[in-house]
Amino acid sequence: MNPELILLADTIHTMDGHATPVQAVAVQGGMIAAVGSREDAAGWRTAATEVIELGPATLTPGLVDCHIHPIFGLEMTGGTNLSGAANLDEVRSLLRAAADDADPAGWVLGWGLDPNVFGASAVHRREIDGIPGGRPVFIRLFDGHSALANAAALELSGIDGPHTFDQAAEVVCDAGGKPTGLLLEAAAIDLVARGLPKEPAESRKARLAALMDGFSRAGLTGGHVMDMGGDAAELYQELDDAGRLPLRLRCAPWCMPGGNENDWAELAAQVGRGGRRWSVDAVKLFVDGTIDNGTAWLAQPDVYGESTAPFWPSPADYTAAVHFFAGRGIPTATHAIGDAGVAHVLDALESLPTDAAPAVHRIEHIESVPDELVERFRRLDAVASMQPTHCTHYSRADHSDNWSIRLGTERANQAWRCRDLRDAGVVLALGSDWPIAPFAPLPIMADAQLRRRSGSPDQEPIVPEQALTALQALEGYTSHAARAAGLWDVSGSITVGKHADFTVFEIDPLTAAPDQLAASSILGTVVGGEVQFLLDRV
């Protein structure tokens, strides 16, 4: 053995059940060549070996966010961040400031709007029609599945009434057929979004590079990318070629309603494409929308009589698509939030032929499900992929938030059943869904244990019995993340023969209090044996 790198740390969590304490890891050719004690490491070292002493820091397998949208996020986060606005007055104030700073003839853009600012009122453009100068205003709501356009934006986009789509999208109109400005799901949103000013290519590339650096500095060595549209492949490859892709990206292009086997074959042909640190490995589907905007697929309607229909007008077509990809050994990831949506995805997986090619199939989000569906996950070996901060950022323990009001008490008490799924033996991958919620993994791991926002000890926890342990939270970003991608044989633990991807923690994530963990720092990351960054304090 001739390792190029040896890492030494007082605490190393291998995440593979290693019985003997480990304080040293050797890396050769981008792979883990040995694990052992500091005494063992003295025998591995050669004259050419770089040795990094991490001291009291904690080394773990590299953290992987199992649900991110980098390219979609570039588009969604254009303009003013409205996620911190607590009421409509604050929203209007932020938009007026943006209008004052922008081109007098240009668009006013915003993102991250929480529908809770509308209180009991429906989301409506009347609240933003008064922006000075008659400027067109376009705002993406926090869930990424809805947007709000003012009268000027609707007029510029030629929207003056209802539209018909191949998916369960909607231009919401009042009783007289006049658009309210609320646009539900991608096809409706695109009626306005396609007319927005295009960002220059170099600016777009620079923002993506900065985002990737931010991911890395937060501790991520990988991400499961749940989109692959437009110029994504070109952008990822340009960053990869320039050595500016500091984490591994596993991408899944969208399969949308309205297609046929020819379209599915084109998606299947993308699988395997990639570069040194990015690849297309799966296909993403949607079976419903979101509870907050009334487009989820629930077994029983919400309190407003909404969330009753699937995203695919013909659920049988969705099932056919899953069979198509599964039959070719292509993993699928399906967005399913409501109980009826989750049940249909499980039905589709259960209907796969017993001799189907081996592939991991996972369900994303799973916001409210009854007991019988938890058990079906285990029986079907389906992977659950969930985002703890969707719970802690956008719902409330007293059920006064829009999500809980729509569902009612019984279903709101079945919120984000992370612990029940883990206790049932289900693989549970964790992530952020950035830009829907912040991507920093330490606060997410903390929130998964607290069931409230980290750093807010006065907040009441939301369905606290669903809290994960510290170990389960770390597994969601390491060993279970690897299993969710079908990559356990090459990643997810500090084991000889696996990728040398590591995250360096300031404090031990398994012993630190969750609030303390959330406020602590990441000291460095290593990907494929290459140090991506390492703070001087190590």
Q: Count all strands and give the number.
A: 24
Share in helix: 25-40%
Major pleated sheet: 8 strands, mixed
Report the principal-axis shape.
Answer: globular
Provide the structure class: alpha/beta
Q: Which stretches of 5+ consecutive residues score pLDDT under 50?
A: none
End-to-end separation in angstroms reads: 26 Å
Q: How would you state the average pLDDT, rounded?
A: 95
Write the layout of secondary structure elements.
Layout: E1 5-12, E2 22-28, E3 31-36, H1 38-44, E4 50-53, E5 58-61, E6 63-68, H2 70-76, E7 80-81, H3 88-101, E8 108-113, E9 137-141, E10 146-149, H4 151-156, E11 170-173, E12 179-184, H5 186-193, H6 201-217, E13 220-225, H7 232-241, E14 248-251, E15 254-255, H8 261-270, E16 278-280, E17 283-286, H9 315-326, E18 332-336, H10 339-350, E19 361-365, H11 371-380, E20 383-386, H12 388-394, H13 402-407, H14 409-412, H15 418-423, E21 428-430, H16 441-450, H17 470-477, H18 479-484, E22 502-505, H19 514-519, E23 522-527, E24 530-534
Parallel strand pairs: 1-4, 1-5, 6-13, 7-8, 8-9, 13-14, 14-16, 15-17, 17-18, 18-19, 19-20, 20-21
Antiparallel strand pairs: 1-2, 2-3, 5-22, 9-10, 10-12, 11-12, 22-23, 23-24
Helix pairs in contact: 9-10, 10-11, 16-17
3D structure, described in words:
- By secondary structure, the chain is of the alpha/beta class.
- Strands 1, 2, 3, 4, 5, 22, 23 and 24 form an eight-stranded mixed beta sheet that branches. A six-stranded mixed beta sheet has the order 7-8-9-10-12-11, sandwiched between helices. A six-stranded parallel beta sheet has the order 15-17-18-19-20-21.
- The protein is globular.
